[in-house]
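Entry for calcium ion complex. Fields follow.
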Amino acid sequence: MRITALSGGIGGARFLRGLLPLLGPGDQVSVIGNTADDIELFGLTICPDLDTLMYTLGGGIDEQRGWGRAEETWHAKAELAAYGAHPQWFGLGDRDLATHVIRTQMLRAGFSLSDVTAALCTRWDPGVRLLPMSDDRVETHVVVASDDGSRRAIHFQEYWVRLHAEVPVLDVVVVGAAEAAPAPGVLAALADADLVLLPPSNPVVSIGTILAVPGIAAAIRTTPAPVVGISPIIAGAAVSGMADQLLAGLDIEGTAAGVALHYGARSAGGILDGWLVHTSDAPDVERLAQQGIRAQAVPLLMSDLPAASAMAQAALRLSGRVPA
Ligand code: GDP
Ligand code: CA
């Protein structure tokens, strides 16, 4: 069985970590990772979601934080600050730094982000084929209101890490997406899949940005594989992160059903066949069925690995594709 998943960082990575133990030796997972959170800092190319996937599935993640390396130290960050270098709000760990240095060095030497990601994955052996959504530069910018009432667009990382998503969102712009091409292998991974999964990743700045790359949404609409997603929203709130604020800013209903209807039923030109909601959102199941999305209510909290595996099992069951 060939499974292709779209993923951001923590929600996608933890779900995929639960999926892998359910699969057999003949099964293959391709992961299309969001690169619109990427940022250039101190001359380095940083790809937070690809790194979260690589570290989580490869056993190097800091479990408490959910991002960055385990047993991290922060000497380089402190030294940069001592020189007065900016920005000082971005979490740049010493171990993590090595990943960014290698990536940047390889990109400067002319390798594509796809090639670089594959090279980094030879160390981490994540058990999936990790594909960046695009080799082209794409960056999410969030349009926020300034104190004087004017609008300004800031990099997503500044909105989230520096401002803690505490300023009202007026719009989200995925800069470069319209001109970007899917990375090699991305469209084929969708067209040739036996199952397409949308893990509980952020619908705006993880899944939404991947879908903004021309060709990717169309490939999901037309793949012969069933497409099943898992809600990142439980009881009207994101389990973690800033999805609620972004959904509100874009006037998308911030509920499990609201996100599913935002993606839309494939039978009505959208991208979903099935959708898992948390048990407390069971009333959404009937509402989604009326709109052509086969939904089911199951526990959706990834409190530990068995819980994530149970969610993945439920997604496989809902899709009708259960590995041998
Ligand atoms: P990021 O790039 O690190 O923000 O990671 P993702 O986009 O992959 O995942 C973020 C989303 O995961 C958030 O919207 C959360 O609501 C969701 N999430 C995190 N933990 C859980 C969980 O245990 N269950 C569910 N259903 N969603 C979760
Ligand atoms: Ca992210």
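NOTE: Residues 66 and 282 are 28 Å apart (CA to CA).
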